[in-house]
Amino acid sequence: MILPTPAQTIGPFYGYALPFPGGADIAPRGHSQVVTVHGSVRDGGGDPVPDALLESWQTVPRPGPGSMRRDPVNGGFAGRNGVDFTGFGRVATDADGHWAIRTLAPPATAPYLALCVFARGLTHHLFTRAYLVRPTEDRLLSTLPPDRARTLMATGDGERTYRFDIHLQGEKETVFLDFRHH
Amino acid sequence: MSLSEPTQRQISAEIAAAHESAATTSRHHPARDFAPYRGTLLRHPHQVPIPLTDDPEAAERTGPVFGVTDVTGLDADLTRQHPGEPLGERITVTGRVLDRVGRPVRGQLVEIWQANASGRYAHQRDQHPAPLDPGFTGAGRCLTDDQGRYRFTTIKPGAYPWRNHLNAWRPGHIHFSVFGTHFTQRLITQMYFPGDPLLPYDPILQSVTDPAARARLVAEYRHELSTPERALGYHWDIVLDGPTATLPDPEDHR
């Protein structure tokens, strides 16, 4: 085993580099099965975090060769190709700490979006999960006390729309996950 | 500036105390609640993250694979993204992306962003009164090759002040974003430059309390990577963390 490279904060000034047009549109626009998941990121004082970046991942049956369109003149991102579903999304919070993504519902066997949270002041990113429905059996949820498990459940918020708020610290602190092996 | 703002001397004493109390533990990653970096105070979770290493069905055990349409040839040379030549010292930064077993991570996206040679980001909210450079934006990306190699041509970023404490200056650094073969190997980090006198004063670098782990964030100058009349060469390998019980790499069974 070789030793890993330590993580460092994303800082506040990633906005011109990491977000890209269509980053929140994981499912092609106009797809009939689209679900919207949205929420806010808040700090321990309850204040919105306007400089957070969220990434979303879910299992994809057939990974594509990439889903970006690129501007042939300057090479910049011109958006998603509008056809492929890659399962990967990236969205920055806005000035009031809010974010929204549009995707396809994950499979019943793993009915959650895997989320990765980055922000100024986070020395190391945080993993969490947004469950859109409560599975009958789940290795993670079954080990958590009900009030903690509740922080991982998105709530219905209109037709095909779910709300999932992330609290970095405090009474409503979201359950975060550790996949490393020490 | 308020009189109660902590001085570098106070912050350095806090860093030394935090390192002292962490000295018995070997931590590869930074402390989340590293008070000398004031931004962590309201943003670190109080509860310990729930370990989740034994679920073979977890969606996190697969990961984004990026394709050739996700990058273009202009992306890896940050000195050619505008009509004019950027100001500053041109550098090449290259290395390999590996997993913890030492296998190359192939075909994955490496993204970088950084300040210009004067220490200013091309970001509207960076109001540090240093010049913007019309020939340099400071964002690049590439896919790793079959050996896991990445390579960028860019400009050595300048130091800049920030408001963590009185007289706080960040050492020159390049931000890196790297994926792996699992979503759990996701890494965002910063590469620093050897010999930078600001390294001991920086609470963000010093949030990594293990000195050997800190040293892994500093690139190495390699003269053989320098190109005549063009650029100085730096080498920096990136090792992605993740569960040790990794799924077999299909490439190993060809």
UniProtKB/TrEMBL annotation, chain A:
This is Protocatechuate 3,4-dioxygenase. Keywords: Dioxygenase, Oxidoreductase. GO terms for molecular function: iron ion binding; protocatechuate 3,4-dioxygenase activity. The keyword Chaperone does not apply. PANTHER family: DIOXYGENASE, PUTATIVE (AFU_ORTHOLOGUE AFUA_2G02910)-RELATED (PTHR33711), PROTOCATECHUATE 3,4-DIOXYGENASE ALPHA CHAIN (PTHR33711:SF9). It comes from the Bacteria.
